[in-house]
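pasting Glycosyl hydrolase for the record, 378 residues
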Amino acid sequence: MNRNEVVEKRRNEEQEQLTVALNRVTDRLMNLQRPENEGELQAMEGEAERRGYFARDFGMDAWDWPQGIGLYGLAKVASYFKDERFAEYARPWMEARIAEGLPSRNINTTAPLLSLMGLPEAEAISLEWAEWLAEGLPRTEENGYQHVTTGSTAAEVTLNENEIWIDTLFMAILFTAKMGVKYDRKDWRETSLHQLLIHIKYLYDRKTGLFFHGWHFTGRHNFSEAFWCRGNGWFTLGLPEYIDLMRPYLDEGVLLYLNQTFRAQSEALLGLQHKSGLWHTLLDDPDSYTETSGSAAIAAGILFGVRRGLLPESFAGPAMRTVKALLEQIREDGIVEGVSAGTPIGKQREDYAHIVTAPMAYGQALAIVLLGEALYRN
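structre below
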């Protein structure tokens, strides 16, 4: 066997390994139920939510942001490989959630529509929700999308008054832009750009190139100034998605600004990558645990950025190390391990390191996106 044949054989073996892992994780996502250790999580008396236990976040049988990112992962499989599983799954999923009664409108409950909006059955609700974002969502100073979330029940909201969070890019800003492109609504497209820019203005740290989790306009602070892994991942993955979608509508100066911000953050992240290929849940704290979902989002965004010419080819190697680390986190039953649960803004940096880990829809989905990018690259 000559050298070329050896290389091709190895490539085929890697492709097969990635494909098997992708199918395993995808199948588990579509059948994801409550976590095995839920009793243990519920028993964290007095601090369950502070440590990430929000009952509605688990599994796929709810309409909120974890499930919305789950749908995003399935839609990505469909776009990469002409896979029919998304449409086959999404239609009955949406029907079941509507029959149960939709939750309150807020930033996080917008997330499912990022993927559902492509279905004819979701057109009316997507248009209603987009109009609500434009006219009904509470705003912060400087007219930012206030990060309103689901309250103690699905029908209630937590206002998080005068706060913006990095999560909003993925949960609502991408949807606003996508609707603006689909329906040729210049006002929605411009709103999405304004929201993106105001989030960069207040959440980007010029000293490090990383992003803080949130900004409080009233207190004029970035809370505990934590550099949270998954929060940075929302930007690393969401920004190239945004550029890819909005490029025809962006002036060259704006495009350059966004691309330079993306590259600066990616460079900073690569400088903090753990030797395993993952990142710590507090990016600059080597004593905090390495976290799978944020790491997958970061690596997938970097690979997507390389593929679209936003980042140099040299950035791909470290991102592919994350793929190898991810494979080690996938159980035989398809569960992705090492995923931190729902993470509110921590009053102290240490709060992020104490968030529990459990199987989550977004963990499955972000693993799918990274595996898809790796297969696309191979």
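The chain has one domain: 3-42+50-377.
DSSP finds 14 helices and six strands in the chain.
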